[in-house]
């Protein structure tokens, strides 16, 4: 007997039939004797529909009213699931975030959880009830409804699991786990049995958008075992957990992440004097443009080249800012390229293995792919390449690091 927090995403509760299917699943866990707290998203498309209604009235609606509006999507699904559970003879009760007393700060539309009251949920669980909670929402100290940002139901799930010290937080979604890379790009991509929080954060921030990143951080902080699994096909999914000291045979690389949404900007011929990096990037960050990789060359002739990447959507804005900065600095010119992509190999096993980067570069060289930028951290190596070589690069790396065989067990 265990206590599970199960979160079902929008597609899993997208129709009445699917809500009934979730109820069947919940019933199976109850029949096995487990205690369950279920967190639901709104029906798929519903949150977007609500946002659309608001935008039809005002371009920038009041954030407080936005929260009152968008939090309704989850209120619909929790009630319907409880009805489906009651129909199956289970006792269940639905709660909005405020009713649970998921207390947040007052940052409407992007609130952060501060405290969760667990006594009520515990009482329900002891009385044999399934507790069904609306994801994505909470309440501030004054009782205002708040929401946690898009995809926030994942965070609700993890936060409840942490507060209740649940045995596992299970995120049911439309994929059956975390893969070595995107199966749409590499046919031989395999599901990972487990991945560490750190690796998952790298994979998530690099474009494997399965979970809200914040929920993974939260789970890591409270060491909540987090499992991603499909609500449509049975299977073990992928366990996201702390690094297991006992796993001797850790793969060097767990996965390959990539991101097409990048653009690269270079200021050429920047004077090699103190303060230049700050004068280049200051106006960029003041314009709320996020910078990812940064590379500055050795100055050969008292000038240097300064390159960085931004999201492709920010490319034009960043370029305009740089032209201005370029003139002020007396730099030579600004060149940009928005047809680039970033490919990263990720793995905690890298810490104890030399030559991982070299192996990556060898693989790219064999496919005749030019590397434009490189950056590394303890558990990842990222390169920027021309976008048109992205698929080729990912496939080559996937086989170079033998990820196609990750699921094979041999004696
Ligand atoms: N319904 C919210 C959204 O679409 C929260 C969630 O599903 O996680 O972003
Ligand atoms: Mg989601």
Automatic annotation (TrEMBL):
It is an enzyme of class 2 (transferase). Keywords: Amino-acid biosynthesis, ATP-binding, Kinase, Lysine biosynthesis, Nucleotide-binding, Transferase. It catalyses: L-aspartate + ATP = 4-phospho-L-aspartate + ADP. Gene3D superfamilies: Acetylglutamate kinase-like, VC0802-like. One of its GO terms (cellular component) is cytosol. ATP binds at residues 7-10, 173-174, 179, 184. InterPro entries: AceGlu_kinase-like_sf (IPR036393), ACT-like_dom_sf (IPR045865), ACT_Aspartokinase (IPR054352), ACT_dom (IPR002912), AKii-LysC-BS (IPR041740), Asp/Glu/Uridylate_kinase (IPR001048), Asp_kin_monofn (IPR005260), Asp_kinase (IPR001341). GO terms for biological process: homoserine biosynthetic process; lysine biosynthetic process via diaminopimelate; threonine biosynthetic process. Its EC number is 2.7.2.4. Pathway: Amino-acid biosynthesis; L-lysine biosynthesis via DAP pathway; (S)-tetrahydrodipicolinate from L-aspartate: step 1/4; Amino-acid biosynthesis; L-methionine biosynthesis via de novo pathway; L-homoserine from L-aspartate: step 1/3; Amino-acid biosynthesis; L-threonine biosynthesis; L-threonine from L-aspartate: step 1/5. GO terms for molecular function: aspartate kinase activity; ATP binding. Residues 265-339, 345-411 form the ACT domain. Substrate binds at residues 47, 74. The keyword Repeat does not apply. Belongs to the aspartokinase family. This is Aspartokinase. It comes from Marinobacterium aestuarii. The lineage of its organism: Bacteria, Pseudomonadati, Pseudomonadota, Gammaproteobacteria, Oceanospirillales.
